[in-house]
Amino acid sequence: MHRLLLAAALIATPLAAATPTDPIATRVARILKDTPLIDGHNDWPEALREQEGEKRWTVDLRAGLGTRAEPYNTDIARLRQGMVGGQFWSAWVSADLPPLEQVKETLEEIDLIHNIVARYPETFELATTAADVRRIHKAGRIASMIGVEGGNQIDESLSVLRAYHAFGAGYLTLTHARTISWADSATDNPKHGGLTPFGEAVVHELNRLGMLVDLSHVNEDTMRDALRVSRAPVIFSHSGARAVDDHPRNVSDDVLRLVAANGGVVMVNYSRSYVSDAYRRWSADEAAEKTRMNAPPYGGLYIGQPDKAAAALAAWRQAHPAPKVTLAEVADHIDHIVKVAGIDHVGLGSDFDGVGNSLPEGLGSVATYPALLAELLRRGWSDADAAKLAGGNVLRVMEAAEKVAASMKGERPGTAMQPALDGGK
User: Which of the residues are catalytic?
Assistant: First the structure.
């Protein structure tokens, strides 16, 4: 009997070992071995600053951060599982802070990014050029770039912008959630009709430095002005297609065509409000319900009674469950951008660790990039097109920006101040 069991085991083992590998997974692995997967926007440094405080300098980042009470989307183990080859780490601070405090905190976040890279040299290496990214990826490490997420963070100073560049910043997002003195935001009331003359000078200086102009968070007038002014291709580091989800943070078909003419790239965001129009509308209803229940000091059915308001909101949520948002819907944004702008003008910009875990099903962490690529391959994408999405397109944009900067090498640094250019606006 024992001999029969042993013989059965010996027969079964080769059969199990011979089970064919998923051909889609094999294709994804091959694509990401040859082309670095580059995400345009990850807020891990700011999340570490907010959640860890002073422990951010020493907390173990290798594994296990997804099991915290407030889980992170990022740690080293999952970056490896996701086959990440390059990452723009966001240096973001609130636009509501005093201007000099914004500059100070931006420098501290840039310093934290440098600290993370220095603590894990076997995993990360700083990159400022496309050639750096390719070299670092080939060496088996993750190329780490820096994006400053808000024009408010330069405090109306081109000198501050140059300082960020000297510390390795690779892009500037022209606004964040607030309209600033020189550019209109997508999520605030407009004041300028796009870029002011100083805003145009900022774009020019970004071109001269070789930094990317990032148009996520800006309104459509600002998008159009920046696309008109910029000599180099622009990026949207984390935005979607407005035709799929009519959120002002997303990019209209008209602007997508301008991006194609400019040579730029739209890197698709995973935040549920920017992915699903149904979820966006539900989220607006939820916000209205919160206000209806309790809006101190004068409004709300249960004003000044937070426990009753919370119970009423919980009952509303039970009666009005949030719409599901899925990985396939993110793929729909990607497909739409390709349809309108072309395959050369799309990329990935997750916004991991920046949206409070409000993420689509199947895209909960940095481990999930292969699943998104697999979805597109199942839709009939070629390996060459998937490689462009993964990182090829943004590498091309980086190289183009470097060439523009080289062509402007003879220009003197910009010195104009915002009040002088904008007539005291």
Answer: 41, 43, 149, 176, 217, 238, 351
